[in-house]
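Just scan my protein:

——
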Amino acid sequence: MAKKEIERKRLEESLVGLYEESYDKVTRYIFVRIGNQHEAEDLASETFVRALRSLDSYQERGLPMEAWVFKIAHNMVVDYLRKASKKQTVNLDQVTIADSNDPEEIAVSDDQRTRVMRAFKHLTPAQREVIALRFHSDLSSIECGRILGKKPGTVREMQRAAIESLRQALYEEDKP
């Protein structure tokens, strides 16, 4: 086997391992950004397909493969949102079916979700990205920094500012 073929095989094996380890993280990250579970799963799968197709262009130059895959996922989300902004539809996949039969519990849960989603809109796109990576994909500030091209301290500061903005937006909404 040629050296290039051996390297390709090694990278393919790494990507397969990463798929098994990180598919759920990538899916959660995409879901938080687009709000549709089925589409998030499709985009996560497509992310790994694109990564496999682009494997020859991947070079480890200090960027872990997981960060590279998240950059692909980010680009797919941007493309998806750009296309979605051109067409406005009601997505029936977003209709939730309650686990409880208690109408009051259902109403409170829906109200809380709605409030948080409204508050989330007050964040900058970069803050939404950090929150999605940190809390929904369970990535460390170091991993987020690699994906976003920022230092871990900058990521932590963006996270702090985002949480403060969410807190302020929720507080303002509660004012009479």
